[in-house]
Amino acid sequence: MNLETIKNLQTSLKALENQLINHQQNRAVVENVEGQIASLKGQNDFNLLQGIKKNLELLSGAFCDEKGLGKLNLMLHNAKIPPKYYDIFYAMLAQATPPPPVSNSALY
Hints:
Order of helices and strands: HHHH
Radius of gyration: 26 Å
Helix content: over 70%
């Protein structure tokens, strides 16, 4: 929700308040307020669904790769670390992870 949306809603609610005070019944004013509220509800529902989708992606990543980036991404998200700092933690994970062992059969 931005400032313009809030101001528009405030104006519409003032118009509705004036109608109630003056005992008027203009349906257009009521429909305007209802439309704005429905729009805000739709926007809120969309944001909620996007958040749920993001959380499910992080959880599935953590389950599939619990000792790597999947778990790290979930932990960073839960800690509310801004994504622009993720590279720092990725570098720390890369340095902490030992290289895979070299098999003797690969040398021959």
